[in-house]
Specification:
mainly alpha; two-stranded parallel sheet; about 50% helix
């Protein structure tokens, strides 16, 4: 819903904005009934232009990552690009940082000017997402290096119970 609201807030044409508001209201209503669906009904119900089954969102909502991470003792690596418009730095990255606090098993990396795919941001605007992802690029080398370094660091730990 954050993504939809970001698009809505970026619209300048009042007519288009009213149409978008109605669509978001309809989607909000569909999501509010999600947990009333049985597993089978959720699998058969499509959302987001018939692309994603409601079951995907129902499962995510019923098993929030926060529940697992509170007691998590294994090493965890949280990465995000600061130009990611699908996962927000303020609520998501900083939310995980707040949840996991200063735990020695948690490593956080926020990358300047990288998008959701850890590639350099071209437009940095959710309204131009299709154009953003059509530009041929590679994952930024620093991300790959940081992941490799993190894997090596946890594999070098003497306590084998922390190994992935």
């Amino acid at each position: 819903m954050d993504q939809n609201l970001a698009v809505l807030n970026g619209l300048r044409n009042r007519f288009v904005k009213r149409i978008a508001e109605r669509q978001i209201a309809k989607l909000t209503a569909e999501f509010s009934r999600l947990y009333e669906l049985s597993g089978e009904k959720a699998k058969a119900t499509k959302l987001l232009g018939r692309r994603v089954s409601a079951y995907y969102f129902k499962e995510m909502g019923e098993h929030p990552s926060e529940r697992y991470l509170q007691d998590w003792t294994k090493p965890i690596l949280i990465l995000q690009g600061d130009k990611d418009f699908h996962v927000l730095v303020e609520s998501d990255f900083n939310g995980y940082r707040k949840l996991l606090g200063q735990r020695p098993n948690a490593t956080f990396k926020l990358y300047a000017n990288l998008n959701h795919l850890f590639m350099p941001s071209v437009h940095g605007d959710i309204r131009k997402a299709k154009q953003e992802y059509r530009v041929p690029q590679h994952v930024h080398p620093q991300v790959i290096e940081d992941i490799a370094d993190w894997i090596h660091s946890i594999c070098a730990e003497p306590d084998a119970s922390h190994r992935p």
